Amino acid sequence: MRKKEYVLFLAMVLTLGLLAACNGADEDADTDAGEDAAVDEENGDEGEEDGEAAGEPQEGGEIIVGMQGDPNDLHSAYAADTQSTDVTRMIHAAVTTHNADMEMAPELAVDMPEVSDDGLTYTIELHDDVYFHDGEQLTADDVVFTYEVFMDEDYTGPRTTPFERVESVEATGEHEVTIELSEPDASLESSALTYEIMPEHILGDVPADEQEEHEFSTSEAVVGAGPFSLEEWDYGTSLTLEAHEDYHLDGPYLDAVTLRIAEDANALLAMLQAGEVDHANIRPQDVETANAIDDVNVVAEDGYNYNYIGWNHDRPPFDDPDVRRAMTMAIDREAIIDGVLQGHAEIAHFPHHPMSWAYSDDVDEIPFDPDGAIELLEEAGFEQNDEGQMEYEGEPFSFELLTNQESHARVDWVVVVQEMLAEIGIDVQTDTMEFGAYLDRIQTPNYDFDAIAGAWSLAIYPDPEPLFHSDQYEQGQNNIKYESDAFDELAQDNRSIVDEDERAEAIQEAYGQVAEDQAYTFMYYPDVHQAHREEIQNFQMSPLSEFFKIEEWWLEE
Predict the structure, then answer these.
(1) What is the mean pLDDT of the chain?
(2) C-alpha to C-alpha distance for 495 and 507, rounded to whole angstroms
(3) Would the pTM of this model clear 0.85, i.e. be above it?
(4) C-beta separation of 139 from 174 below 8 A
């Protein structure tokens, strides 16, 4: 299919998507690769404002924000999707966090940790005026308890890597924590210490392997020390958060925030038009409509994430890097960006974002080349039969491409990918699932997929190991079972390198190996758009979170 024909096809896809809006889905409900963040970059949209504060903060009032899908878990050790991490950050607080300049900053800690000269001892002084929502004071014991959940041999979550080098965590004072490492870890402050602290007085007697499903993690029984407390969770409809009056940092200025659950992006836009929500993430194709709504500002920024197709290397022929490369060559990513995303994205060739210090453009940019894809597949043992179908091991080759229904863009582009691969004789069956069911199918221990279309939010201080190291298959995030001795060797020592320039070089080499092996087909880096009422002041857009620093938002009377 030539490009002009794709444009027509893509137009049809978008039309079908709009017609199917009643049951459709949209916006990136990204899986989350750890903690994340980004830097702003102008995307050229006109009429956009940054929502800066007009004066001194005013207390009081409520806002309603739209969100696609409920969170799956509110325990920091298990929250692994965008909705869960966004809500978890409102309810809980962590030792360290990221500020608006994409730098590490203390949150529960008074200052950044004191690190010994050998890099093996971290001493953390906590604020002495931090209280959980139920009135109990947060102390060093809560920090020790939380980190030991991640280190427990019965821990069932995906975040073991950040604590691999932690030998011990000890309360060395009521508000002082000392962490001893087996070897230096340059990522500790930006990974392990950013996980929110759980209350020992509530979960201390709950075994680690039962905390994920405990009512604390899945209902309004949750108690945190963050700026908002969860008062009501009407699953599938809304979550009601109220201001935590004893929050130890600035804010919250709003009395309450209601998270209104929308079925899909079309429903979210309709809510915005009807004045039923005051803030929402919107699709690129909805920017013009949102800008036309009275008293609504639309803000745009580079998204600090990428979309990808993950090939299950445990299922031949996707264990062959040449086959994966051929798949990438057969997909016209530029046409998808132009047609599905209306140009609001950039082709991805590398496993991290161009804004990052860990990014490198010194990689092989794989072009759209369907004829070259066919040649590679034939060299890998495929044969094209008389009907034009690609056969593998004597049978017409077919596979399933799975994604989550909440992402309207991905639901659209997997259909386009299906058509593009059909052009070289490959049959693709697409399937979309509710996000929780999707995660259950693709994560440990099931790994029941041929290929998945997903997205990863990215870390400011990345560590390539959790996603791609061979040790991270059984109970980690390497669900595609990527195995590369070269990558393992390049990546495994990166956390020991304290000098950022040297560490960047090590990470770039490791990520370069992933790109060369086409562990994923890297699709694109998307732009993100958010719309909010003009009355909301001090709105801070950040790729860190859709609700970045929401405790510092306020309403102008």
Answers:
(1) 87
(2) 9
(3) no
(4) yes
